[in-house]
Amino acid sequence: MITPRSGSRSAAFAGAACLARGGAAALRTAAPGGRARWERTNFAGRTVELYAGPAAVLAAVAGAARVRPAVAGAVLAAGACGAYDDLVGAGDPRRGFRAHLGALRQGEVTSGTVKLGGICAAGLLAGALLKERPVDRVLAGVVIAGAAHFVNLVDVRPGRAAGAVLALAAPGLLRAGPAGELAAVATGVAAAVLPDDLGERAMLGDTGAHALGALLGAAVVVGNGRPGLAAHAAAVVGAAVCGKRVSGVARVPWGARARGRAPV
């Protein structure tokens, strides 16, 4: 039996999925600036499209705006910061907090540093709007920004980022109210982009990965009190500290662990 609340989650999922698929198709048809601007070479040397990233941002923002406008703002900012890094930092081999902060100590402001600062600021602002107590606001900001960073950390092979969002958002679908709807939006967008991502026809890039991660973090924030926020904040900070290891695990081919292969 479908209750009104479960129906709203279903509608949020379907709407986000349709908007993500439709947005990608519209961008593919228009190809603003020429198709070359929307193409990249992936880890296997194949040419993939970048339409999925902006389409994911559009769908995530539209879906979140219906539930919590503050979340939509954080998702849009995360996507914009990711797009900046996709465009400006495409040829920069430096990855991770340490590399970019090290460059900053040398007086160089990299695109990764700009992205880091922008997403952290957006997360803290959204946290301030979503929570009332100062400690909860800070924890919420850490969760939103940290989740955005985590999803980008695992976006190193086809399907890893979208698959992570599907897996991590699934428990949120059991929640009623805004938290469940935000989780449904994240799930809908991830499900829509996953087939092309897995098929190595498209990639989310920093644009889509950061936006989906911020949405995932916001769903956690809306659905949890201080204990839950603290636990999730510790998890995303731990993932950031062990960023290279997290990305290394994500690079392992699916099924390799069952065959006894270790991460390279």
Give a description of the structure.
The protein is an all-alpha fold and 264 residues long. Helix content is 70%, strand content 2%. The protein is built from eleven helices and two strands, in the order αββαααααααααα. It has helices at residues 4-30, 52-65, 69-88, 96-105, 111-130, 134-153, 160-169, 178-198, 205-223, 226-241, 243-251; strands at 39-41, 47-49. The protein has a two-stranded antiparallel ribbon with strand order 1-2. The longest helix is centred in the first third of the chain and has 27 residues, at 4-30. Mean pLDDT is 88; it is low at 257-264.
SSE succession: HEEHHHHHHHHHH
Given the helix and strand composition, which structural class is it? mainly alpha
Low-confidence stretches: 257-264
Distance between the termini: 48 Å
Q: Describe the biggest sheet?
A: 2 strands, antiparallel
| Main sheet strand line-up | 1-2
In quaternary terms, these chains amount to: single chain
Overall shape: globular
Number of helices: 11
List how many beta strands DSSP finds.
2
Helix content: over 70%
Average pLDDT works out at 88
Strand content: under 5%
Instruction: Determine Rg (CA atoms, Å).
Output: 18 Å
Organism: Streptomyces galilaeus
Protein name: UDP-N-acetylmuramyl pentapeptide phosphotransferase/UDP-N-acetylglucosamine-1-phosphate transferase
What features would you highlight for this structure?
2 strands, mainly alpha, 264 residues, two-stranded antiparallel ribbon, globular, 70% helix
Quick structural gist:
This protein has 264 residues and is mainly alpha-helical.
